[in-house]
Amino acid sequence: MAPLKYSKQREAILDFLKTRKDHPTADMVYNSLRPDFPNLSLGTVYRNLALLADLGEILRLRVGDGTDHFDADVSPHYHFICSECGSVIDLEMGNIDEIEDIAGMNFDGQICGHVTYFYGKCGACCKSSMS
């Protein structure tokens, strides 16, 4: 495979994602970068996000809202999705890789990984419903 040609826009997308903890969508990335890149198209953002995800430089999160979210933190970690406001939050927790052994107990095959999302109500939504 030929080396990937440098792209200022791709670099800006990756740099932007590295500053975020809110797991933005392609639209959020596009709207945030558009002032600095007036010729940037939404299609370019989508293509570059897909490429970066395929290369393993970012994570593409499919959290059930019909829209992909993106995360520059590619280390193994888990996410919480708020059923009220839709926010996607990194969970600070220990490793639960033993879930693969548990899942494999009655499975005639080989489990090589897992993706786990936790759902509920975030702290901000809990507080706002109490007021």
Explain what this protein looks like in three dimensions.
By secondary structure, this protein is of the alpha+beta class. It folds into two domains: 1-74, Winged helix-like DNA-binding domain superfamily/Winged helix DNA-binding domain (Arc Repressor Mutant, subunit A, Orthogonal Bundle); 76-131, Ferric-uptake regulator, C-terminal dimerisarion domain (Dna Ligase, domain 1, 2-Layer Sandwich), CATH 3.30.1490. The protein has helices at residues 8-18, 26-33, 42-54, 98-104, 123-130, and strands spanning 59-62, 68-71, 78-82, 88-91, 117-120. Strand 3 and strand 4 (88-91) form a beta hairpin. The chain is flat, with a radius of gyration of 17 Å. The N and C termini lie far apart (57 Å).
Would you give the CATH topology of the largest domain? Arc Repressor Mutant, subunit A
Order of helices and strands: HHHEEEEHEH
Rg measurement, Å: 17 Å
The CATH architecture term of the largest domain is Orthogonal Bundle
What structural category do the secondary elements indicate? Answer: alpha+beta
What does the largest sheet look like?
3 strands, mixed
Overall geometry comes to: flat
CATH H-level superfamily title of the largest domain: Winged helix-like DNA-binding domain superfamily/Winged helix DNA-binding domain
What is the averaged pLDDT score?
Answer: 93
Question: β content, as a range?
Answer: 15-25%
Instruction: Report how far the terminal alpha carbons are from each other.
Output: 57 Å
The strand order across the widest sheet is: 4-3-5
